[in-house]
């Protein structure tokens, strides 16, 4: 088939970009940057969302106005249906289900990248990425005219489809784990690292084959390459996420967020769409930075998270010994009495609070304590919950004031002057083994110094369970710790009644 090509020179459409279009996309990009800045703080998150909406409106409107639309009615119907679906989901979704919702949205972004990539591959002339007819022998009379994709676009499409497919299948598994439809425990396959590296190497090799025209410049060979890239990418997304345990879910969510951004950016190059390139790069880079922050908060490397299996080896030995060690149990009345005697209380929420949906009862308890002149603060660990900012979202839903919520590094020094540390559903983030036991899988992870508090109340369902890291917690057995074994929401409600 190379006989149909006039020369091996690179093809280029040479189309000039309308300066007004470029300006509109630039303005949209500025709004997206302002959105990211706003979303970095709970107090400015609403403004950040509005900036993001404005940027997206500008980007979509500019694209629709400046492009030849085959059927604007169909586009309008699709926008209406998607907007209506989003509105219904936003109003009905419980805040406790936000992690799996985010994972589901990431999967849709990945799937969109795959579909756009395939549409461009099957009809390159419609996307302006076909090899120009003047680059072909016989010009427009060449049977390949309009059917050959420019080599550089093959790389962009291949990478975009691969990243999008990985994002889709990985997000589906993350959704299943977060929603409880699949076990959150690591699923470790034999030789998984070799398999994963091998599949990734094959995907990259196939993309290179597309670019260099190995096996032919068009037709069934290219199609087979593209099908293989897509299928293998779907497979590797599945294989990458199933060995990752629940403790690493905050990193997984931010990582998939990053992947979806890079997939969009790659498709932006294919489509020649500046807005997609800017937006994708912003989402991809911010997700990567957030993944780094999450890994640092757990004292783990990004590669160790991707390797999966956090706590898999220690899980068998960590969960069984708790019942054999002496611990104190108490009632809601005991907790209420001690809370009333306190001057300063620090609350440490965790995933157990989210599962029990206890955030509203917790805010009510906070109000009662503050009416009695007791200072209450909330301590949020960077990896508490199942996505970055999970606890912040839940507390915001319960109308807890932003100025009462503190990050680990801002409040950890205050536990020494704290009368009561009130732990509700957290485990690994308060485990002193992270500071003392070099054999522990969480060793080196920054944790709250709750052992320095005068009194500790620890709400959990039973002593039989351990955190996602699979290790026992010495806080359970400290002299100043009282275990409140019950459903978190029910226990806090009973404490509120006792306080009243």
What would the principal axes of the Cα set say about the shape? elongated
Give the distance, in angstroms, between the N- and C-terminal Cα atoms. 84 Å
Largest sheet: 6 strands, parallel
Order of helices and strands: HHHHHHHHHHHHEHHEHEHEHEEH
What's the layout of helices and strands?
Layout: H1 19-39, H2 45-66, H3 72-92, H4 98-122, H5 151-178, H6 192-212, H7 220-241, H8 249-271, H9 274-297, H10 302-307, H11 315-318, H12 332-341, E1 344-349, H13 351-356, H14 359-371, E2 375-380, H15 390-397, E3 405-407, H16 408-411, E4 420-424, H17 433-436, E5 455-460, E6 481-485, H18 488-499
Parallel strand pairs: 1-2, 1-4, 2-3, 4-5, 5-6
Helix pairs in contact: 1-2, 1-9, 4-5, 4-8, 5-6, 5-7, 5-8, 6-7, 8-9, 12-18, 14-18
Write a structural description.
This protein has 500 residues and is α/β, with parallel strands linked by helices. It folds into three domains: 16-92; 97-310, no CATH class; 324-499, TPP-binding domain (Rossmann fold, 3-Layer(aba) Sandwich). Helices cover 55% and strands 6% of the residues. The chain is built from 18 helices and six strands. The protein has helices at residues 19-39, 45-66, 72-92, 98-122, 151-178, 192-212, 220-241, 249-271, 274-297, 302-307, 315-318, 332-341, 351-356, 359-371, 390-397, 408-411, 433-436, 488-499, and strands spanning 344-349, 375-380, 405-407, 420-424, 455-460, 481-485. It has a six-stranded parallel sheet. α17 (433-436) links the parallel β4 (420-424) and β5 (455-460). The longest helix has 28 residues, at 151-178. It is elongated, with a radius of gyration of 27 Å. Residues 1-14 and 310-323 have low confidence and may be disordered.
